[in-house]
Structures are given as structure tokens and as C-alpha cells.
User: Fold these one by one.
Assistant:
Number 1:
Amino acid sequence: MKAAAWLLTRFGVDASLIGDLVEQHRSGRSRLWFWRQTVVAIAARVAATMSIDLAVVRIAAVVAVIALAESYLWMHVFSHYANVLYMTWYPYSIDWMARTSPHAIWQIVVFLHPWAWTFMAGWCAMLAVIAWCLVRLWAARAKLILGAFVLSTVSQTLPILGRTFFDWTRDPTNPVWISNLVLYAMFVLVAVPLSIRAGGRHAAKAVSTLRLSGSR
Amino acid sequence: MSREALGNFELMVLLAILRVGDGAYGVPIARELEASSGKDVLLGSVYAALDRLEAKGLVACRVGDPTPERGGRAKKYFTVTAKGVRDVRDTQRALIRLWRRLPELRGGTA
């Protein structure tokens, strides 16, 4: 019966259940009985684990779809409003900088693409709001939601990284690829995860405050 | 009664724990179920039901000391919580009400 007990342990069956089976076997139950109980205990354990995994997969899939829809909405609907905002500050400031700033500073400004910032700030704000809503909806799964949201959002931007790599292979001496890489790292690898985390943490705090006030 | 209704087997497990009383762990619970139903009971199914009942807050468990006859493994003793007792009573009342409306099943003659 050592093989059956080993199998039960390997499949993570409750030690108390294994103890019950061993106790019963030693008090006269047959080998066949032990093996039948073993098979059922392992099947029950696998079924329980699968149902947890399925729930996780379901939530991750919903979050991934929301992340996809959010990117589409941003690109085709909300970026229009960001453009309105961008037009209020960018043309005047860039014109003023071109006329007044020293050449070195102007080079840095051009390198950092400030015209992209309005769009990125708007995108990050939208991500934070969606993360906030998702965590408010499923507070118990906050970590899973935020992880899936960051992964789904970042993975959608991988073509940008591919294009930067293509620029580098074509002409490594042209600094455009470095500029794109710096911007990618700044926004996609830092600002996007931080925005999602900030929105999620704010919602988690709000939920725990609500629970505390409800339990009083 | 809580929104999630008790399953038939879950209700039987709760009643078996109440009948065994102190010292209700897997083996006596399964024996009690076998004695009352007349069928062989699988310990894996009993533990799966106990896990669900524990998650619903209807049973509580404590771990005893490991013993050599169990290969050095500890027993898990189960007790029905106040919420569990309430749910059992509510289920009993609901079943009795349903029974009363079925005269053909009265007296076990059907």
C-alpha cells in the first residue's frame, strides 16, 4: 500500500484522509478497497484543483478581453480628446522652445518626443480607472486581475518593440531606435504597470475601508 | 437558510457529524453514513463534501495528534458550526413543508 500512499501524497491529497485510509486498511480493509478509495480521493483532488484553475482562467480571459477593448477604444475614440488637449499646449511650447532653448536642450527635447506624452498620460489615466473598476468588482482577486491586466496591456505593445528592433538592424547609427526604446521603457514598462497598480491599490483600499466600516 | 442550498450528500455529512458528536473524524463519519444509507461510502467524497462545508462556514475542524496506526498522520476532527446547525434546521423545515404537500408519499407507501 506504500505505492498508493505515495500517489496520494504526490497528488496533494489531505494528510488526514490518507491517515484515515491507512487506519482503515490496518483494521482489516482489503487492498482492493484501499486502491478504490485512492483512485476516488485523487480524482476528487484533481477535480477540486481544476475548478480553481478554471475560475482563474475565466477571470484572466475577461481581463484580457477588457484590455484589448480598452486599447481599441483608446486608439479610435478617446485619443481624439487627447489630441484636443495636446493641441492646447504642444504647438506653442515647442515653438517657444525652438526659438529660445540652447541647441543641447533642444536635442534632448526632440529625443524624448514630448508630443507623445499627452497621449501616454491619457492612456495611463484610462488604465488606472479601468483597473480601479475591475478591482472594485472582484476585490478578492485583485492580484490576479492586476497581473493579467498588466500582462495583456504590455503584450499588445510588443509590435512596437519589434519595430524598434527592426530600426536597429537596419541602421544602428541612427539614434531613432534608442529614442523609441527609451520611450517604450518609460511608458510601457514603467508608467503603464504603475498606473494599473495605482488604480488597483486605490480600489483595494476603498474596499477594505468599506468592509471595516460595515463590520463595526 | 443561506442562499446556497445544501446538497443531499452535504446534508447527510452534517447530520452524521452531529450524530457522532465529539471525535467526529473521517472514519466514524463515513461509518455513520454507511450505517444510515446502507451503501459503501468513499472517504474521498466525504472529504470533498467536508471541504465544501468548511468553505461555506458550516463546519469547523481541528487537527489532532499524529498516531502510529495512521502512519504518523494526524486526525482532523470536525464539528458543525452554529450556522451549520441553523442551515440543517432550515433544510429540515423546508423538506417537511414540501412533504406535507405530497399526500401520496405520506407514510412511505408510495
Number 2:
Amino acid sequence: MVFLAQTFFQDQCNPFLLSFIIKEILNRKKMKQYLKIGAWMMFASLLFVSCKDKMFIKHLANVPVYMDYELFRSQVRYEAPRPIKKGGNIYLKDNYLLVVEQNEGIHFIDNSNPSAPVIKGFMHIPNCTGVSIKDQYLYANSAIDLVVIDISSWQQPAEVARLKDIFPAFLPQHNTNYPMASVDKDKGVVIAWEIQETKEDLQHYPVYFEGGALASFVDVNGPSAGSGTGVSGSITKFSIIQNHLYVMEGNRLYPINIANPLSPQGTVPVVIWREVETLFAYNNHLFMGTTTGMLIYSVSNPNQPNQIGVINHAQACDPVVVKDNYAYVTIRSGNICGQNINQLDVIDVSNYAQPILKETFQLVNPHGLGIDNNLLFICDGSAGLKIFDATNPLTVGNNLMHQFNNINAIDIIPHNNVAIMISSDGISQYDYTNPAQVEFLSKITFQP
Amino acid sequence: MKHFKTIFLVLGLCSVFSVQAQDIVEDKIKPAYFCELNTGFLAGETVSGWMHVKNGFTLGKFWNISFVTGIEGHRPGIFIPLGFEGRFAFNHKKTSPFVSMSATYLQNTGTRNYGYYYTQVDRTLGFSGGAKLGVQHFFSKSVGIVTSVGYRYTFVEQNGMSNICWECLPYETDLLHHMNRFELTFGFIFR
């Protein structure tokens, strides 16, 4: 009885119904009454049956941690400098180097002297994964929102505008060893995940496909970025072309009109049916590094970029940079990157509609890359930083000029003869004024 | 095949009990052993069938209790129930209405994958319980028929490695089934 009562209660079936019926049965003596009771019993059985089956799944999962929307949107503030724990995207604007602390905010580093950079402050932006700058305005994502920060005074940056809910599918990075539990957006913004045992109705299974988990972005260094923009590393999902900011989030490309920075306007996102990892703007085109190839999008209609070219490769991760008629794509393997391929592809993009793979060079585990003048910088993972002579793009992989070992290089910005490289343990800078003799300048070490 | 052997064995035991019980059927004091062979179906979101063998004895004029086993089909698979049923008859005549309640543990009959949720099911178990209203009618001192309608709740828990998350390695998962069914029964009583 206890078992039945419990289960009825769990199932939201009326536990008193059954006891009522039994009581009625026990009080009756005549057969007619039995028949009546039988009819009632039949009716009761059908009532119970009308309780639908329920299926639950119980397992360890990434369970969302919520923050109230209002509270979340009041979190942006400039704070005293703090040590960098784990740097993400890097961005260079004038004499300032910005380093994204994943999901926490942006470090402002005065880099007027690359030999002695100084961390000046920290812009706290919850769930920020990328940054981009045009003129005096910094654009950063904050989970589902885009925030605009006035940096006319580097000492006192302040939020001046916010485009709410522009990235509705944003979810923070989760532990990929476990599935994601359901998200209830009415509870607030998902700011993190916790691994917990969860029991869920199988009919409302997790939101695997709604959002992409990664919304990182940094800006681009191509000539079409327009005046007033800075320079980003190659591992970025933010890009500015003229008066439009392009953000890749999940499998959607969001064009955002920033002609009026104080009132950015979002438009209908473009769905990209591939897993896009990096954006690179060059010559009024967007070059997308995806896990299965490189896509070229035209922004002749800035609100609705359209694909004009593609070159496929096997499943792998692949940042891309472009210079003149050649795109340089590093392809690497890894947990989420697929097969065992680690190489540099040199692609002829003189005709954007028909990119052609020209050469391939073997590498160890390449991540970000950058090109300046005729030097190609490749962060080759555990093999460190490699600098190639790219005078002849078709032989670039054979012309290794320098290699800096013992660093786990991730991404790089080569700009004005200074290469700013982020590795797993810090940010190092190198002077390549004399390409024959690249000199180490400084390093900011992370303090996890 | 193994389960059919078990069922035949129980049927054999039923016959023995029936013969032994004939002489004491009218005895109000000593327990009267009986055996019942039932079949029926469970109807709800899905429909499945079952067969039960019950061995029990009477307790006084109106009550009896029996041990239940057999074979049952449920949404997640086929199970052998092991449990008890208590029955209250409203009179002591040839034809008597009754109410009964049962509770059984469900032992699964082997590893069975459940759709795409699992790469491998390591454990399946369940419980079932319900209440019925029915009528029993005896043609003679030792043979009768029984029919009833009622409600049955069944809970089945499956544990295994799931591969439903495309980006994860298979991970341990429990799949919990709560099933509500209308139950119709028909059977024979030997005592």
C-alpha cells in the first residue's frame, strides 16, 4: 500500500482515489452494488491509465548556474589590475594590449613599452569571451548581450550602450565529458555550469543544438577592417568591416551595425552549416576557419553576408590569415578537432569563388598564426613559436627562420615589428625589426 | 527457454497443490492451498501481455494471499515478476466478487538495449503494483475461473552507458520509466 501510495503521489495521480474505492467496496453487500463498484473501478482504472507514462533520465551533467538578468546587467565595471589567470583572445589597439580572461572580463595592459608592459586595470564583463574595437568604442560580448564601452579614456572606461539578447543561444563553455542539462531561460542568464546529478524529463532533453557553447571573439587584422580598429589574434570570432561588427556565435553569424556605436543594431543572423572557429576579415570579405574547411563570405550586403567560396579539408581545427592572393590555414588535430592532421595549407585565393590548395607543410600542433610583411608566425603548440620567411608563399613551410622552443604557443599578433604571443603560461613579446635576429622583449606570466 | 522450464515446473507444483487441497477446501480454520493460472494485458501508452502463476493459501473465510511469478512484457523489456498478491473475497459462495492488491519485483530476462539512449545496458530492475476488482466463480470444489479489471503501476530503472550526447564520451545514465496501465485479467483457479 505504501509503495502504491508513494508511486501515485509521485505520478501526480490522486492517491485518495484508490482508498476511497476500496472503502466503498468494503461497505457494500449486495451484488448490484458490486456491479456499481465494478463500474467505478473500471472508471478509476481508466483514470489512472490516463496518467501518461513518464520517462526520466538521471545522470551527471552540466547543470546551469543562473544569474538574474538585472543583476547580470549591472556587473560591468572597471576594477584595479589583477594578475592574469588564463588568457584568452588578445587584441592590440594603439599602445594598449587587451587580454580576455575567459568569462570574467578584459585585462588592460599598457604596452607603450613592449619591453616592460604594465597591467593597468581590469574591465569586469561577465561571460565575456571576445573583444573588438573601433575608434573609441570597445565591443565585447557578455553572454547574451553585446556591451559597448567607451575607451576614450583608457583610465576610466565605462559601459555606454548594450544590445540586449543579441546572442540568445549563448551558453558558457561546459565540461565536454558530460552532457548539458536543460536550460530554463526564465531563471536568468546561464553564467556557468556545475557538474551535478540531474533528473530530467526525457521529453525535454538538453539543448545540445540550440547554442554553440563558444562565443569567443577578437578582431581582425586585414586591410578591410577600416580605420580606427585594432589588431587581433587569429583565433577570434569577432571581426569588424567598415561599420559592421560580425560575431560568430554557435552556428550563426551575427552582423551588427555599429555606425552609431551608442545604438548598435542587430540584424537577422546568417546560419552557417559548419562549426566555425575563427573569422578573418580581409578585403571586404570574411574568411572563416571551420572544422571542415575554409569558407569565404562576401559582405557586399553587410547585413546579409553570403558565401562565395569554399575549400574543404578533413575534420580539424583551422585558424586562417590572408595576405594578398594567399590564405594561410593551420590545421590541427586534438580532442574536439578530429583526425591526426597537423599542417599548414597555403591556398590561392586570387579568385575568391575558387580557392585552390597550392601547398601543404607538416607542423607539430599548430594553433594561431599571423603574418606581417613577409614573415609568417605560427604558434605550433608544444613546438613553440616558429617564424617563416613568406616571401614566396609556395615555399614558406621550407623557410623556417626562427623557432622558440619550450613554450606552448597559442596565438600571436605581429604588428609594427613586435610580435605579441600568448602561450599557455603567459604573454611574450618579440622584436622582429631585424628578421634575421628576432629578440625576446618581455613576458607577463599568468598566475593561475 | 530457461523461463519456460520454470513455468512448467510451477504448473506441475500447482497440480500437486490442487490435489492436496481438495479435501480441506471447506475447512475454515486450516489454510487451503490453491494455484491460479492467469493471463491478461496491460493497456495504456503501450499494450503488452503477461502470464502469471500464483500459489497461495486462504486465510480465514475471505482473505487469501499468494506468491506470484510468471512473465510480463513492459515497455523497456520482458520481465519475470516475483511478488505477492492479497485478495479479499466479499463472500464465500460459488461466485464471489473480490478486490486484490499486488506488489512484485521485476527481474529482467537479459540485457536489452533501449533505443539509441544506450550503448550498453548494465542493469535493469523494476517494481510493479496495482489493485484489481474481479469475480471468481467455482464450477466445482477444486476448479474455478477468475476475471478482473484494475490499475497497474510499473517502475523500471535501467542503468547503462549512454551515447546520446554526440560530443561526449559515453557516460553512465539511469533511465527511469514510470508506467500507468489498465489491466484486464482472465484465469483459472485450482484448489
